[in-house]
Amino acid sequence: LPPADADAQTNPTPDAADDTAPDPSPDPAPSENPAPQVAGGWQKAESPSLTDKQYEVFDKAMSAYEGESKYVPFAYLASQVVAGVNHRFLCLTPGMQSEFNREYAYSVVTVYEDLKGGAVITDVLDSGYFINFAEMPGGWSGYGPSMDEYIKTSFEKAAKAQSLSLKPVALCAEQVVGGMNYLVFCEDGPSYAFANLFLDNYGNAEISGVSRVS
């Protein structure tokens, strides 16, 4: 089976200002009736697809952020009810950009929304993982963040067969090879990880290139 593509690596380059992060593919609208939240505990998002409200909260926090990095929200991961709400996002950070290659690093960003509607970034976990979206055959292309049932089920079956504790959360990218590679963001116990799912033309699945977010 082909190894994970060499363009998906684990040492992000320095950040560069850019407003051209790949937009997630259209996804079904998240449920209007999410599971009830438990005060103090993190509640996994029903869907990783961002709502207008979540975009608004993140943009408000980003506008007040004084750090050098620019974060672009890609997927919604979880929320936590406190005296207000903590929101956890998977974000892209632009790296080196060219006409045919667009490099991005991934970060997990926590935003606190207070009871008056104010929002600030309170924590950034740089994953150490980056990907190169290449506008050429065989390159990675942006996708997700929701994944269809076939990809999700294939990942879960492969994880069970390989005795991995990974649970798929969001689909980050896809790559056409002798079959398909999918870059999947996962829950890994109390933490997160990136993993490559390879699906061959016969429906066989294998997970490789697991990179844990520390």
Task: Please outline what is shown here.
The protein has helices at residues 52-63, 149-161, and strands at residues 42-44, 72-82, 84-97, 101-113, 119-134, 141-142, 166-177, 179-188, 191-199, 205-213. The protein is mostly beta strands and 214 residues long. The relative contact order is 0.18.
Give a count of the beta strands, DSSP E runs of length 2 or more.
Answer: 10
Order of helices and strands: EHEEEEEHEEEE
Contiguous low-pLDDT stretches (5 residues minimum) are: 1-20, 25-38
Query: In percent, how helical is the residue content?
Result: 10-25%
Straight-line N-to-C gap: 28 Å
Number of helices: 2
Shape: globular
The radius of gyration over CA amounts to 17 Å
Nearest-integer average pLDDT: 83
* % residues in beta strands: over 45%
Would you tell me the structural class of the helices and strands?
Answer: mainly beta
Major β-sheet annotation: 5 strands, antiparallel
Q: Largest beta sheet: what is the strand line-up?
A: 1-2-3-4-5
